[in-house]
Write a sequence for this structure.
């Protein structure tokens, strides 16, 4: 089969070829069952096996402590923007840190359910591109939790470490960074992520929540979104997104098989992600044509927005990229410019091909 184009989509994003081939091979008959995974009862033994393996692999990859629940939910990260305050705010105070478009959406949604205060915010006329020093954050002591977005997919702003200075339960939207590097799960009360960036197909939302956070949902919280109900029913209170869970499980196994030098699994993937991001930012920084608007210390390893200093060249840049089989590089409509999303499934060779093209384009313009 000819090599597929390199796909820089921010999400739904490229999946590893190996995973797609694997799923294709067992599409009509999963392990001699005579059924496709999407045709199975979610309560049958076959799907039970798929779900429990997916959870075990995820727990191992992220070293999830035993006192955390792993929930397989639906609705995406935007639904979690409501589900989190419904479950964790007690209708009282909740504090948010705004470092980009997604955390901005989170805090606006939370206002429907609780008293929101911005512990820090970085919006400026030129958009987002930094994280305020943690010494300057002013969360309320009696807030039920402090929410942040670990990686701002649109703006390219990423926390390099969990912001653990305060004693408040920490809640993180990790939609576009979960499984790109090791994460300090124990520093968090709750982590959530829509799958379609770095985990699997759209339709699945992962939630990792400490057991002490369960049982405080508002009475108005829909049962299917009540963490305690979902946990008690092992993510099968209602029909879970079975096929998306199966695909995510294949991705978890793929990550476990990765090696990079002496590194294995998530450590190998993280090292490769660092190399990919370094290569691309080095190209941008050395160039007279391309520029990044994000401060060095918080540049995302997953989503790299960049701009052409002469914006009239945008269309020509995108056209040339398309001709070289470099797909979906156009920036988010709210930001403009370009954005290269380089999740786990993007090989180093894909970033090298992009960088070669960027050099060539700069020389000829
Ligand atoms: C994509 C994304 C969202 C939105 O996810 P949906 O699945 O569309 O609800 C929210 N937050 C972050 C960080 C994202 O990357």
């Amino acid at each position: 089969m000819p090599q597929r184009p390199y796909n820089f989509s921010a999400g739904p994003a490229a999946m590893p070829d190996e995973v797609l081939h694997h799923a294709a091979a067992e599409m009509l008959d999963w392990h001699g069952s005579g059924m496709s995974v999407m045709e199975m009862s979610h309560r049958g033994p076959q799907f039970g096996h798929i779900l429990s393996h997916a959870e075990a692999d995820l727990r191992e990859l992220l070293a999830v402590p035993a006192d955390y629940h792993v929930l397989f939910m639906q609705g995406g990260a935007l639904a979690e923007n409501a589900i989190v305050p419904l479950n964790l705010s007690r209708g009282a105070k909740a504090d948010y840190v705004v470092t980009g478009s997604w955390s901005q959406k989170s805090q606006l949604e939370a206002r429907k359910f609780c008293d929101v205060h911005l512990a820090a915010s970085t919006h400026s006329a030129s958009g987002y591109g930094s994280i305020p020093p943690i010494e300057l954050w002013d969360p309320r002591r009696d807030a039920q939790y402090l929410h942040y977005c670990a990686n701002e997919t649109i703006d390219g702003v990423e926390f390099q470490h969990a912001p653990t200075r305060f004693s408040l339960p920490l809640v993180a939207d990790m939609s576009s960074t979960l499984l790109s590097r090791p994460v300090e799960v124990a520093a968090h009360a709750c982590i959530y992520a829509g799958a379609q960036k770095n985990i699997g197909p759209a339709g699945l939302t992962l939630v990792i929540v400490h057991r002490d956070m369960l049982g405080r949902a508002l009475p108005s919280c829909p049962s299917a979104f009540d963490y305690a109900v979902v946990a008690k029913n092992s993510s099968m209170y209602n029909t879970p997104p079975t096929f998306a869970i199966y695909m995510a499980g294949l991705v978890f196994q793929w990550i476990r098989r990765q090696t990079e030098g002496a590194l294995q699994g998530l450590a190998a993937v993280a090292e490769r992600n660092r190399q990919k991001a370094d290569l691309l930012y080095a190209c941008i920084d050395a160039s007279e044509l391309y520029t990044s608007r994000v401060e060095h210390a918080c540049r995302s390893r997953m989503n790299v927005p960049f701009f052409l200093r002469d914006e009239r060249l945008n269309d020509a840049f995108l056209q040339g990229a398309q001709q070289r089989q470099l797909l979906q590089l156009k920036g988010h409509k709210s930001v403009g410019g370009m954005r290269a999303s380089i999740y786990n499934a993007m090989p180093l060779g894909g970033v090298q091909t992009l960088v070669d093209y960027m050099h060539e384009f700069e020389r000829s313009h």
